[in-house]
Amino acid sequence: MKEFTIKDLENLSGIKAHTIRIWEQRYSFLKPKRTETNIRFYSNHELKTLLNIALLTRFGYKISHIDKMNEAELEKHILSLSTAEAQQERVVNDLIQSMITLDIEKFENIIDNYIISKGTDKTILQVIFPFLDRIGILWLTNHINPGQEHLVTNIIRQKLIVGIEGVSSHISRNKKIMLFLPEREYHEIGLLYANYLFKRHGIKVYYLGADVPLKDIAMLCEHLKPDYLYTHLTCVTGNFQLEKYLSQFQSLIPKIPLVISGRLCQKYKSKTPSMVQIKKSLPEMLEFVSNL
After folding, report:
1. Which domain holds residue 218?
2. 217-228: per-residue pLDDT in tens?
3. Is residue 1, in this structure, part of any structural domain at all?
């Protein structure tokens, strides 16, 4: 991906499009090109510049001061930010830039170094999830090349699997949970993280993975009898309707509670069936795990 719309820059940097336009008029660090129909588009370099500027402004630097810095000075001030929050955001920005430029070795090294420094759990919460949240909108709008998506998500997937294999719990809860993604849902990162969390809390996990038909889930439930079913919805392809899916699920598997999290749940406002719980945020999901 070499060109970004102003909406892409807004989503990736957190700076409103209106503010970006004002900065273009007043300062010199952004110089977008325009299409024949006069629509702005931005380069990889301009994205990196805006990410750095957004980080500095959030931690007290004035935009008029930033505009006077050259690239080396900008990098120096970025590295000087010492708070944990600023350092985490800097790492997320580096992951975004590595993905955009397809510097996959650097992308993987950033994650590995954070795991060594902070551990798997903090890496997931402080770096991987914020990164996925920032770039997630690009997946939904097809503004990211599928090849880029596959590369970065598979690296993250591998790190999560290693974390899952290495996790141990000093407690054992008499609970069983079955994890799955519905048909035509292939974004497995959120579900793998749930797997990691449940195992860390001593809960028995049956992990079915992606693209699982309802009839297969129903058959397995008859034999394995889980206490809960869990799914995480990011971007189901095709004509997926959550309300319709929940109705079908309730009629086929009426006696086992279903817990749902993920991006597609955040704007769901219809009434849910009695055996369905929707977790619209990470804190809600973490509370559910802790209370099992």
Report:
1. 169-291
2. 999 999 999 999
3. no
Claim to verify: residue 62 and residue 145 sit in the same structural domain: yes
Q: Are residues 152 and 13 in the same domain?
A: yes
Residue 199 lies in a domain: yes
HEC letters along the chain: CCCECHHHHHHHHCCCHHHHHHHHHHCCCCCCEECCCCCEEECHHHHHHHHHHHHHHHCCCCHHHHCCCCHHHHHHHHHHCCCHHHHHHHHHHHHHHHHHCCCHHHHHHHHHHHHHHHCHHHHHHHHHHHHHHHHHHHHHCCCCCHHHHHHHHHHHHHHHHHHHHHCCCCCCCCCEEEEEEECCCCCCHHHHHHHHHHHHCCCEEEEEEEEECHHHHHHHHHHHCCCEEEEECCCCCCCCCHHHHHHHHHHHCCCCCEEEECHHHCCCCCCCCCCEEEECCHHHHHHHHHHC
pLDDT of residue 277: 92
Q: What is the pLDDT of residues 129-171, one digit of tens each?
A: 888 877 765 554 455 666 777 788 889 889 888 888 888 777 7
pTM above 0.90, yes or no: no
If asked whether residues 107 and 248 sit together in one domain, one would say no
| pLDDT average, residue stretch 91-108 | 90
